[in-house]
Design goal:
single chain; two-stranded antiparallel sheet; 7 helices; mainly alpha; globular; 2 strands
């Protein structure tokens, strides 16, 4: 098993509420969290809910994502001490992009700036 495999098996339905809690602690909303995740992945709100309901892991969540936003490569910065733009593994990079967008939301960044 590769070191990242454990992360890839994490259920999106477990991560999503943590993102929402993080955002809500900073007076942001679930709608805003979903909006940035949909922007990144191309999911509709219904598609996002479907992934939550069917308990997809992160690997499946990104494999079934309609289309990664073409501007996602513009997402730069540090998550968990690692520069997202330097992450080699494509799936891990996508997961960190999602983490970074939620971080920016929680830090009070405007949606227009987050969704580059």
């Amino acid at each position: 098993m590769k070191p990242n495999d454990r992360v890839f098996r994490i259920k999106f339905s477990k991560v999503h509420p943590l993102y929402v809690q993080k955002a809500e602690r900073k007076n942001r909303t679930r709608e805003e969290v979903d909006q940035v995740i949909c922007w990144l992945t191309g999911y509709s709100q219904a598609g996002l809910q479907q992934q939550i309901d069917k308990d997809s892991d992160l690997e499946t969540f990104f494999a079934e994502a309609p289309a990664l936003h073409p501007n996602s490569a513009l997402i730069k910065g540090v998550v968990c001490g690692v520069r997202v733009e330097d992450i080699e593994d494509p799936l891990m990079r996508k997961i960190r992009y999602m983490d970074k967008l939620v971080d920016e939301l929680a830090k009070g960044k405007a949606l227009e700036k987050i969704m580059r």
